[in-house]
Amino acid sequence: MKEYGRTIPYKINAANSFIKRLKGLMFRKEPLVDEGLWITPCNSIHMCFMRFSIDAVFISKEGKIVRIVEDLQPWKMVKPVQGAHSVLELPSGAVHSLSLKVGDFIKL
C-alpha cells in the first residue's frame, strides 16, 4: 500500500482536456500565487508565451514525484520525462518552501 504523505496547500486547477492542456498558463498576466495547475496526461512542457517563471513537478501515475524543475523561465522547455504521467505547475519557489523532493508521493 502506498502512502500519500504530501498534500499541496494550494488551490489546484485541473487541465485535463486537450484545449485546457494546450492553453495551460499561456498568456496569463499575473504569476501564480497560492495556486497551481495540474496538467494530465502530460510528460513535457514548454514556456512559450509565458510571462513568469514556475516550478514544475512531474508525477507518475502512482503519484510519485519523478522530476522537479525549479524556477523554469519563460521561453524554456522540458523534454519528455520518463515515467511522468502528469505535471503540477506551481509558483516559482513553491518546491523549496514545501520541501518537495523526487521520490515523494503526493495526492492531488
TrEMBL record:
Protein name in the entry: DUF192 domain-containing protein
Gene3D superfamilies reported in the protein's UniProt record: Protein of unknown function DUF192 (2.60.120.1140)
InterPro entries tied to this protein: DUF192, Saro_0823-like_sf
Taxonomy, superkingdom: Bacteria
Any matching Pfam family: DUF192
Taxonomic placement: Bacteria, Bacillati, Bacillota, Bacilli, Bacillales
Originating species: Mesobacillus persicus
